[in-house]
From TrEMBL:
The keyword Hydrolase applies. It comes from the Eukaryota. It comes from Cephalotrichum gorgonifer. One of its GO terms (molecular function) is phosphatase activity. This is Related to Phosphoserine phosphatase. Keywords: Hydrolase.
Length: 250
């Protein structure tokens, strides 16, 4: 398995992007400010959590309500979306310690890369692996036309991007090769990844916490990357070894 330097790592940090690395979820921002609005988006979120709708179907409906050309959408997001406090510091530490950071996102690559380049150098960008959905033009249009773009899903799953598939490339390794794996997330796009890693960080007060509580999936909460950094550092350095101990640190 060759996965951009992650194949022999002792620790891997998987993370969602929107609402986890970023303070504001870029897709929620687009949908609420330029598309269907808050009320309809929240109703679709509830349908996803209850199982009444697949993430794939509901998310496509959310984004399809945004008619602004794609380049204008990116420009809008660059003005309004910020990275979570502590992420750049944590990412720098991971690079120094040889802990790969892999972004598993239900969002679209051009938006993710555009936002990250606002805060990270090109050299730092090379240290990130991004596995995400993409954007495609609607028939007969350019993505930068009015109502000209749509999401292009990563796979054929009900999630559109089943994040567990990427994680299982590592969890299925023989015990002597399997790394310790972390995952950080916040919302409905993270449900497929919630049970797959050794330590799950779920953002306080968000949908992933509700799902984990209902399904009895172990997790620790976070508000920003400062607490994640402290806990991951303790585990990498051997000062904390179990999820129960990690939870006690927060």
């Amino acid at each position: 398995m060759t996965t951009n330097g992650t194949s022999h790592a002792k620790f891997i940090f998987f993370t969602d992007f929107d609402g986890t690395i970023t303070v504001e979820d870029s897709n929620d921002h687009l949908t609420e400010s330029l598309g269907m609005g808050h009320e309809r988006r929240m109703a679709l979120n509830k349908d996803i959590l209850s199982g009444a709708r697949t993430f794939r179907s509901a998310f496509a409906e959310m984004l399809d309500s945004v008619k602004l050309p794609f380049d204008a959408c990116v420009e809008n997001l660059l003005k309004h979306v910020r990275l979570h406090p502590g992420f750049v510091e944590f990412f720098t530490w991971c690079r120094q310690e040889g802990v790969p950071v892999v972004i598993l996102s239900g969002g679209m690559r051009p938006i993710i890369e555009g936002l990250l380049r606002k805060f990270l150098s090109e050299e730092e960008m090379k240290g990130l692996r991004i596995v995400s959905n993409d954007v495609a033009p609607k028939e007969g249009k350019s993505i930068n036309d009015e109502d000209g773009w749509k999401i292009e899903y990563h796979d054929d799953s009900d999630f559109g991007h089943d994040k567990s598939i990427e994680i299982r490339k590592y969890s299925s390794l023989p015990a002597d090769q399997r790394p310790t794996m972390f995952y950080a997330g916040d919302g409905v796009s993270d449900l497929s990844a919630a049970k797959e890693t050794d330590l799950l960080f779920a953002k306080s007060g968000k949908d992933l916490v509700s799902y984990c509580e209902r399904e009895k999936v172990p997790f620790v909460t976070f508000n920003d990357f400062h607490s994640i950094h402290e806990t991951v550092k303790a585990i990498v350095e051997g000062r904390t070894t179990t999820q129960a101990e990690a939870k006690g640190r927060l």
